[in-house]
Protein: Microcin C ABC transporter permease YejB
Organism: Szabonella alba
Amino acid sequence: MGAYILRRLLLIIPTLIGIMVINFTLVQFVPGGPVEQVLARLEGGGDALQGISGSGGDLPAAGGDDRYLGSRGLPPEFIEELERQFGFDKPPLERFFDMLWNYMRFDFGESYFRSISVVDLVLEKMPVSITLGLWSTVIAYLVSIPLGIRKAVKDGTSFDTWTSGLIIVAYAIPGFLFAILLLVLFAGGSYWQIFPLRGLTSDNFSELSLLGKIGDYLWHITLPVLASTIASFATLTLLTKNSFLDEIKKQYVMTARAKGLTEGAVLYGHVFRNAMLIIIASFPAVFVSVFFGGSLIIETIFSLDGLGQLGFRAAVERDYPVIFGTLFFFSLMGLLVGILSDLMYVWIDPRIDFERRG
């Protein structure tokens, strides 16, 4: 197993390099870079993308650099100084290798527009995204596993039929639409003012007691967590049901029943461990998928300042250190989670040997 883990760890290096090469190359062809963003702000336009569409294109150039749409009337020295500050005075290949060398030392640089290191910025926004991802994953498992087991036991009954219809309808509802519905119904949109409209804590959070802080925190995260969890129930529930059904039909279950064991002993003493192998081992991957997927929309609707909002703003502003730093960090996390999932398979079922399979 040690050799397998070592191979997987070594494969992370070329995989990360490949991801960074592809994204760095794509960025070179995207208009409206950091220099254009600064020039657009100096002109009061606010966004360089407004100039790309051709607005102001008929104005005569009065100096500046013709490579930039917003450089009219600005001295070339100013443009060169901007390029030097952003590192664009170097060839793309040299910039790429400088970036890789810095990332190998876990030096992700500083945000172009916030005067804060990328690591500090990610750590500042991460609690919000971890809150959504962790609570959504835990709640999905707590609901889906018992429901899936019950559906497997009651396979073909009316309970199985109407619960399947319910979770499929829930799966079909887009997360953002369900989030808006929750706001309208329970956050003072048109009906009841039960939950707060935005944020993770109240303004007087620091003045509350320990129990008051816990209650305030849970009060704020209820609607965002429900909105981000709604689509997770269907996959996990049906996966649990099908996994249990497959195990129930196997020979060892019939043998256990023939020995006179109760249905509960058969189900939870024999079937549970084998049936839950895929479900429990996939927990890290499910958490990461919930952690990344849909966070932007949920954070925007509920005014939560997390990693989703950070990534969106960085892409709009062309804040390349934040874009590449978070991309590197999340890619590394995803690859490590893949290894962790394999280790959980072996931990749950020691009969699995990835090294021998390799």
Summary: Residues 127 and 306 are 7 Å apart (CA to CA).
